[in-house]
Fold:
Amino acid sequence: MKSSRTTTLMTLAWCLLFSLCFEASARADGREYILLSGGPALRKWEDLRAPGMQHDRWWGNFIRPARMRIEEIQKKEPGAMITWLVYREAFVTRSVEDKRSLTALVESVRDKFHVNLRWIENGSQVINYLNHGQPRGSVKICDFEYFGHSNKYCFMFDYSNYIFGCSKSWIHQKELATINRGIFTRDAFCKSWGCHTGESMSKVWRKATGVPMIGAIGKTDYSNPLQIVLSPGGRWSKG
Structure:
């Protein structure tokens, strides 16, 4: 009996040691990539708009570009620590309209690429992860990118999902002051792929975090999920 118990304890000890070594290896370079995806609009709201003004006819506008970015990062840096924050509620409600589980499709991306998927509900959870999701004294953020709706003052996670033409979940530029300074690498790459971020929010981001954020002057176009482009007359700006 003692021998069996000793063997069990030794097995548990080795499992714990392996887990700690794996975690230490994953964090060896002290760098984390963080991607943030907002959710799609509901069709019942978008059908009220004129055809040229509709958003999110395809549910995956903000998922496919993040998926492609994950692939790009992993090809460049195999074993990179990648965390993917996704606004869950919009995919739950859109699932009812599309008659299939969109959350399961998002999770299939997680499973294929072995990334750390974190479902989020609001901006406070995003900022809390930035500040405390990893021990920021040793694991710095080297990349932060946002895929979703935005205006010049905020990221809007659920634009035209719960309320037509409005959002109930966001990060406003006034909240950026609660992001801890020193959590990013000196050469961190930060970019918002949403509309209008470069007109105000990018400047506030840089003031709050000490690192620049590339944002759009004008609108961005997700109609081709393989490449996000600027609408005519738009340009990228580094706040």
Notes: The first strand starts at residue 31 and ends at 37. The longest helix spans residues 2-26. The chain is about 35% helix and 25% strand. Residues 7-28 have pLDDT under 50 and may be disordered.
